[in-house]
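Allow me, if you will, to draw on your knowledge of protein folds for a short while. The matter concerns a single protein, recorded as an amino acid sequence and a row of backbone structure tokens. Could you please explain, in whatever detail you think fit, how the structure tokens follow from the sequence? I remain grateful for any guidance, and I place the record below:

…
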Amino acid sequence: MRVALVAIAVLCACARGSSGVQQDSNNGSGKSDGSGSGADAPPMMADARPIDASNGCAVQPCSITPQCGCTDPNASACDLGSGSSNACRFATSTGVEGQTCTAPQMCAAGYTCVGGNPYSCEKYCTATSQCIAPRGQCVIQLTDGTNPIPGAVVCSSNCDPSAATNALCPTNWSCDLFTSMYNATNYNIVDCRPNGTAGVNAACSTTVACAAGLTCVNNGTSNVCMTICNKTANTGCSGGKTCTGFATAFTVGGTEYGVCN
């Protein structure tokens, strides 16, 4: 029997205020609404400061990828600033993939604070080769609520949805299956989301409801939480269950994923 994933779309991500960056809630990851309505954002980037436009960076006043133009030791990271334009900010922390944040200043240079209460640090990129292999992909576009922000794309996670634990996800988050639309193309991705509470075979409407290691699928009659497994290696299932693929194969980084059935 083949099953179908439920509510796995990542449409875009949106930037709000000075530097509050959110991903669209339709990804089921618990990251905030990209529609411009009712989403929380990290504190505004009050430490942003003007930059000398003659700094030689390819993008002015500073460049996010690669990092260029922020030479002040007290504001050494280029990030999205007011009105979605670039600005220098403090980079007093070293937050990278797998760490939560409440403001951009908690993320290292080259990363930004993305999500929707909770938030996590995600890496800016211009090519998938800059993301963590084999599952990370440069396919999550940040927007201003309506339009893509030039030069503001972040990596999806390299977490393993079939693993018991994931160091690349924040504490009390788990790795799940999603789809990201980027440049009018849908990409299968894996990404982190806060843990839900629904157990195996419990009813669900989106994957956010499911406990760690589970995803929300339609089994032909209803939407239920089922254990994610590695179909390529046929691992991750127990109790006589086998790894069943989806009606449309879900492959990321050369591995096909399914659910235990």
Notes: The chain has one domain: 4-260. DSSP finds no helices and 17 strands in the chain. The mean pLDDT is 82.
